[in-house]
Write a structure and sequence with these properties.
Blueprint lengths: L5 H30 L5 E5 L6 H17 L3 E5 L6 H9 L6 E6 L1 H4 L1 H4 L7 H4 E9 L2 E5 L8 H10 L5 E4 L5 H13 L4 E4 L3 H9 L5 E5 L4 H5 L4 E5 L26 E7 L4 H15 L2 H9 L3 E5 L1 H21 L6
Parallel strand pairs: 1-2, 1-3, 6-7, 6-8
Antiparallel strand pairs: 3-10, 4-10, 4-11, 5-8, 5-9
Length: 332
């Protein structure tokens, strides 16, 4: 057998020496991943308590707490359609212990209508999970003299500029949905923005606005007490939870603005943390009690992967961006 020449012997020895180091690095990374999390995790929520992202976040947070053995704390930071929460997220430590739960509008609508955002979706954030999807419902104050979509349209056309609608903020899905509805039908209904559904829904109940779009969790109690009337939803089809309420798409073909609930981390967050949270959320989304709990609130649990969320966001950005332009929403 021929002895190795000096250069080949040097290469062989270098590879041999590197093997234990590579194994040590791999075992260290595995140990760190296995140890995660070793302290509480925070979910920053872009909407107020009772809103769609908040409802979904709390269900997942409870299950994650049970599975991790560490508390997953919900921190509501509503305002400016997610911009307040996004700024808080941007300044939080990038250690895998802070995530943001929002609907798609924070990253799909805001960049189109706000000139000077302090964040950039693709630069500052990474996808974690496509958590859920749910329609928004067009709800009327009982004193608004309309019992269905056609009657509301007739009323708005007969009295242009006199009816009002509330939203959870400028640039929110609630805002865009109504503007798209108005644009498609040539209606003049005045926008009254609020700081989240925690303000807009009480304004509807109190008669400060005539109507609004909101998710079922923030409306269901008032529906049961006959304090609001649901006349349409913004999804492509009727919801199994409220089958008597028509989809607006039945009147306006292609009308679909049902929001997704998403989970993001800051760029630079350890991949092991992202992978662990995403994997756990995928498991949780299939738990029968979670499926039933969210379904009762008119919400579809998804638990999609980071790649699933990336694809969904690309679709949201294209679809909602066009809708903003069609509705003639101006940059602010």
């Amino acid at each position: 057998m021929n002895p190795l020449n000096p250069s080949r012997r040097k290469t062989w020895l270098s590879a041999l020496i590197a093997l234990p180091l590579m194994a040590l690095q791999a075992s260290t990374a595995w140990a760190q991943a296995q140890a995660y999390p070793n302290k509480p995790i925070k979910f920053i929520i872009t909407h107020a308590a009772g809103g769609l992202p908040d409802t979904v976040a709390r269900v997942y947070a409870q299950k994650l707490t049970e599975r991790f053995g560490q508390a997953v704390v919900v921190d509501n930071k509503p305002g400016a359609n997610g911009m307040v929460a996004a700024q808080a997220m941007a300044t939080a430590p990038k250690d895998g212990y802070t995530f943001m739960v929002t609907d798609g509008s924070t990253f799909s609508i805001n960049p189109v209508i706000h000139k000077n955002l302090s964040y950039d979706y693709k630069r500052d954030f990474v996808t974690v999970s496509l958590a859920a999807r749910a329609p928004l419902y067009l709800a009327l104050n009982p004193k608004t003299p309309a019992n269905n979509l056609r009657e509301l349209i007739a009323l708005a056309k007969a009295k242009p500029g006199t009816l009002t609608y509330g939203s959870s903020g400028i640039g929110s899905t609630h805002h865009l949905t109504m503007e798209a509805f108005k644009s498609a039908l040539g209606l003049d209904i005045v926008h009254v923005p609020f700081k989240g559904t925690g303000q807009s829904v009480p304004a509807l109940i109190g008669g400060q606005v005539d109507m609004l779009f909101s998710a079922l969790p923030s409306l269901s109690g008032f529906v049961k007490n006959n304090q609001v009337r649901l006349i349409g939803n913004n999804a492509a089809k009727r919801s199994p939870q409220e089958p008597q309420v028509p989809a607006i798409a039945e009147l306006i073909p292609g009308f679909d603005f049902a929001p997704i609930v998403t989970v993001f981390a800051s760029t630079g967050t350890p991949q092991a943390a992202i992978d662990r949270v995403s994997a756990e959320m995928a498991v949780i989304a299939k738990m029968p009690d979670v499926v039933q709990l969210l379904s009762n609130a008119g919400i579809e649990a998804i638990g999609g992967s980071p790649a699933d969320l990336s694809r969904a966001m690309n679709e949201e950005i294209e679809r909602l961006g066009k809708a903003v332009q069609n509705a003639n929403l101006k940059q602010e």
